[in-house]
Design a protein that fits this description.
It is a single chain. By secondary structure, this protein is of the alpha/beta class. It has one domain: Purple Acid Phosphatase, chain A, domain 2 (4-Layer Sandwich), CATH 3.60.21. Helices cover 35% and strands 24% of the residues. The strands form two sheets. A six-stranded mixed β-sheet has the order 4-3-2-1-10-11, covered by helices on one side. It has a five-stranded mixed β-sheet with strand order 5-6-7-9-8, with helices on one face. Helix 1 packs parallel to helix 2. The radius of gyration is 17 Å and the shape is globular.
Length: 238
C-alpha cells in the first residue's frame, strides 16, 4: 500500500502551471496510491462551495472526482486558505474531510496530521485572525454575502496577509517546538506530518526518550512536493 501526502498547492487560474502539475500528479497515482491526504491550502482561497464554478475550479474538482472514482481514497484537512470547503465540495469530488489534527496508523506508527498553522503560535497576528475566521459567527456572516463581495473580501485578506508576511521573520512564521511537542503528546504520536510553512524538511528529536520525526511538506508554486509511505519507508520529495 502506498500512501501520499501533499499540501499548499494554492491552486488558482492565475497560476495554470500548478494546476497542470496537480493533474499530472493525480494521474500518476492510478494503481499506485491507495490513500492520498491533502493537508490544506489546496486552493489559493475558497469562499464557499457555491462559488467553485465562478472561481474557475471545475477542472480541479473534475480531476479529483476522476481520481476517487477509480478507487483512490482522498482525504482533506482544511488549511487557512480553504477552511470553508464543506460537504457539497466533498460530495462533488468524493473527497472525505477530516478534522485538524487527525491521527492515522501506518505500520507500527501513530501519525498525527495537521495543516500546521495552529502550530505557529509565535505569529500572534495570524492566530488572532485564525480564531476570528474559524468562528461560526464569522463564517455565517461571510457566507451570507454575495459571491462578488466574498471574492472582494478574500482578495483583500490575501493582500493584507502578503504585506504582513514581508514584515515578519521566518522564525515567527514557523512552528514552535513547544506546540509541536504538545500536539504529539496529546495524540501519543510517533510521527507528525504538516504543511503551511512552505519549508519542506525532516526534523528529528527526542520526547520522553522516544525518537520523533516531523515531516514538513513543501508548496507547489514551481514543483510537486510530496511525501509517500510504502513498506514502512517515508520518502519526501521537495
Amino acid at each position: 500500500m502506498t500512501v501520499a501526502f501533499i499540501s499548499d498547492l494554492h491552486l488558482t487560474p492565475e497560476r495554470p502551471n500548478s494546476t497542470i502539475l496537480f493533474e499530472e500528479f493525480l494521474r500518476a497515482t492510478e494503481g499506485i496510491v491507495e490513500d492520498l491526504y491533502i493537508l490544506g491550502d489546496l486552493f489559493e482561497y475558497w469562499i464557499g462551495d457555491d462559488a467553485g464554478e465562478q472561481l474557475g475550479h471545475q477542472r480541479i474538482e473534475k480531476a479529483l472526482k476522476q481520481t476517487t472514482d477509480r478507487g483512490t481514497n482522498i482525504f482533506f484537512i482544511h488549511g487557512n486558505r480553504d477552511f470553508l470547503i464543506g460537504s457539497d465540495f466533498a460530495n462533488r469530488t468524493g473527497c472525505r474531510i477530516l478534522p485538524d489534527p487527525t491521527v492515522i496508523i501506518l505500520g507500527d506508527n501513530r501519525v498525527v496530521l495537521s495543516h500546521g498553522d495552529s502550530l505557529c503560535t509565535d505569529d500572534i497576528e495570524h492566530q488572532n485572525a485564525r480564531d476570528q475566521m474559524l468562528s461560526s459567527k464569522w463564517k455565517v456572516a461571510f457566507l451570507d454575502k454575495s459571491i462578488e463581495d466574498r471574492v472582494h473580501t478574500a482578495k483583500q485578506l490575501r493582500s493584507h496577509s502578503e504585506k504582513s508576511k514581508q514584515k515578519k521573520s521566518m522564525e515567527i512564521m514557523d512552528v514552535t517546538q513547544a506546540e509541536v511537542e504538545k500536539m504529539i503528546m496529546e495524540h501519543q504520536a510517533d510521527i507528525m506530518i504538516h504543511g503551511h510553512t512552505h519549508r519542506p524538511g525532516i526534523h528529528e528529536f527526542k520526547l520522553d526518550s522516544k525518537r520523533i520525526k516531523r515531516y514538513v511538506l513543501g508548496d507547489w508554486y514551481t514543483q510537486k512536493s510530496s511525501l509517500t509511505y510504502n513498506n514502512n519507508t517515508f520518502l519526501l520529495k521537495k
